[in-house]
MSP domain-containing protein
Amino acid sequence: MTRLLTILMIMAGLSVPAAAQETAAPEGAAATEAAPDAAAAEEDDDDDDEGEDAGEAAATYDAQGKFDYGFSGIMARDNRTDLAPLTLASGSPVAGGEYTLKSGGFYRIDINADGSQELALSGGDFFRAIWINEIVINDIEIRPMGVHSIEFDNAGTATISFVAVTPGRYTLSIPGSSGDTQQAVFNIQ
């Protein structure tokens, strides 16, 4: 008996939000969601009810046309910006200068190691401020949930493609080093 009551209570609880959404939706928003082409056709109509159309247009939550990223969206190749590569070599600077990125931008960067020394790049704050699409090492694509550092034991290249998310100033640095040339600085705006 208690199982039956529990099931009935759950079903009643699930139907309440759906009913609330149906009654709370403004008339213009419901019409736009149901038939966006019909709503667009109504806006082009030259009726004498211009006051009513303006009120309905204000209640419409249409994000169409704000971002035209094409078929593949933000991750399309023509939206991606290739950054100057980072270099891991004994005694060489990691980056040629600071990087300025825009929040929401899609970027790709190569990290090249010459194998002269076992070196890593560490920067948990930077990796938490971006969304990593993939890391490619020797044609192996890795799609991680999170990264703290990348270490090179031998010569090689790792390519990271990512979307900058959280604005701020972040560094990728060689662990244990203190020089300004032993880090890459990323400014996300």
About this structure: The longest helix spans residues 2-24. Residues 173 and 183 are 4 Å apart (CA to CA). The chain has a mean pLDDT of 77. The chain has two domains: 2-58, 76-188.
